[in-house]
Amino acid sequence: MAKSAELHFEGKVYELPVVEGTEGEKAVDISKLRGQSGLITLDVGFKNTGSTKSAITFLDGEKGILRHRGYTIEELCEKAQFLDVAYLLIYGEYPTPEVSKTFAEKITLHTLVHEDMRKIFDGFPTSAHPMGVLSSLVTSLTAFYPESLDPTTSPEGVNTTIIRLLAKLPTIAAWSYKNEMGHPLNYPKNKLNYVENFLHMMFALRTDDYEINPVVAAAMNKLLILHADHEQNCSAATVRVVGSSQASLYASVSAGINALWGRLHGGANQAVIEMLENIKADGGDVEKYIAKAKDKNDPFRLMGFGHRVYKNFDPRARIIKKSCDDVLESLGIHDETLEIAKKLEEVALKDDYFVSRKLFPNVDFYSGIIYRAIGIPTDMFTVMFALGRLPGWIAQWKEMREEGQAIGRPRQVYVGENERKLNI
Ligand code: MLT
Question: Is 370:380 a contact under the CB 8 Å cutoff?
């Protein structure tokens, strides 16, 4: 029997349908409430609002579960290649070996970016933050592929736009780093796989004999998978809302990149390393900063601890912590900042103040440490997150489009002045 909930208001009873997800999650459908009663719902920051039904990612914040299309993040990280996970998220099924090969070949055909885009790169000062360069360049793809502007015309055209974006983002991301360094740009090497190619474009030419370290490539593959999607987070919700106006995929993803940039979202991994650097510069006294974090009157905030939806632990952090230890050991890295991170983690995991407040190290805490260990500069960390999140954004955008979702248009409760006269 269909479930419903009742709302009693001013002597009337409104019956509201209850929608149930495949994992038993229940939601009150209020889409007709305003028409029936004049009421809207108020949920600042959409913390308790389901903005869509989705079949892409399941997340249980209490139990620390994260699954993409039904597969656990643990299994995907252990066995899969990033590009296959991208395929899974976007098209709904894990690719067979043949499909995987064809998909990778298609991506390879599109890794070059138009030479005229180099002129845009040249216009950026070397001080430009690579996230700004990345989002600008993704928007500028609309100029080179104007057929992408209208996503309503052809499904094959949309698919080519998807392939182009997946293929070109690593090139653009690596070039945004090269721009910052003032280095010549490296072109893609298509005999390499997706992850190796990115490492090549980032690091070749820095040392003549640059060879891809398999430990680094494996860690990078895992990091990208770990970030591939996280259901209706701030940037995915942005991509869906922007796309709901029928803006192109490039414009929608560019908006997602900007949403990711902030330190409360993807920018957190950069903020973690900056925090560790500051602690180091101040003598490396971890206990002092633990005390500061506990002091209500101190503005210091521990970055990379706790999570909005995970209440007990972040399953991605558990996976990445292991990978972090492996990478540091195999690269023989001894870095004071990383030592500070380890001490901070150790104290926070035992201290009742942090334990009782669920302030556990999250994925941003460890990912920054690995990026740093493998030589990715700090302000590229969020770009790495964007590279990983791209398939999720595409999958969310595609699902939204295929379901013909209405334009995102929230309401508000107005609390400003009532009508008044201009006394002039
Ligand atoms: C993410 O992966 O997008 C972040 O953990 C933020 C979130 O889910 O709210």
Answer: no
